[in-house]
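Ligand: zinc ion. Inputs:
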Amino acid sequence: MKIICVGQNYAAHVAELGHTIPTEPVIFLKPESAILRVNNPFFIPDFASEFHYETEIVVRINRLGKGIARQFAHRYYSEIGIGIDFTARDLQRRLMAEGKPWEKCKAFDSSAAVSAFLPKTDFADLHNIDFHLDINGQTRQRGNTSDMIFDIDTIISHVSEYFTLKMGDLIYTGTPVGVGPVAIGDRLEAYIGDRKMMDFHIR
Ligand code: ZN
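Predicted complex:
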């Protein structure tokens, strides 16, 4: 399986990082070794000093697809989860300044924390899903899928022009405003609506 991530998909987050609004989805990949299973601790690596949480709605692909038209994209996923796209922000700033690829700062081991999944039939409207992240009991990041620049179906259609989608692939759909650093000892709790989906510690 592979992990496909969308960058810069919420306007207020694009602004907080000082980027311009993209005109097509910004895509990067993580390998399977990036997965951090639900509620396992995240161990801060040594190679950078500023690790940020990015809380994101995650879609799991349920069938093989290539060149998927947007109007059929909904057939290619049936489950919704939440994840943390951990990012070595100081390293990302350096790589971007040097015009280098993002993998070292985005695709490292355990950089893709992911929850269990809920059937999408649990949601009345996939374009209106509230989600949030609490750290040490305080809400630090809150988003709603209505604020996505590119919605789930558009992302699937776009991605499948370039990459064959396979059953079990995960798509991280981008983070809203409010990213920030984690520290050893932090407790992270991620919610979809008021349902707690993840509860784990930074070590
Ligand atoms: Zn992200």
